[in-house]
Design goal:
Blueprint lengths: L12 H10 L2 H32 L5 H4 L17
């Protein structure tokens, strides 16, 4: 008896949706399970991206909203006058 080697590939969600609607009971359940797992990973990735974005953004302060940068520029002798 030959050993079954399933394909390891990526299926687009619309194909999985069609399999879930039109396939037999076994294929339909497999497609629905895969869609549920896909949705779980998409939500998790979105949550992680949102948390990372919140950690890297700086709070908005009044000084940043005024449009005047606060910089100190030094020359080679560490002076700030021109």
């Amino acid at each position: 008896m030959p050993i079954r080697q399933p394909f390891h590939c990526i299926l687009p969600p619309d194909l999985l949706d069609r399999l879930a609607r039109a396939g037999d009971h076994v294929k339909s359940n497999a497609a629905l399970d895969t869609l549920q797992l896909d949705q779980f990973f998409r939500v998790m990735l979105a949550e992680v991206a949102t948390r990372l974005l919140c950690l890297t953004t700086r709070p908005i302060t009044f000084m940043r909203l005024s449009g005047k940068p606060q910089r100190t520029i030094f020359d080679q002798q560490h002076r700030t006058t021109q």
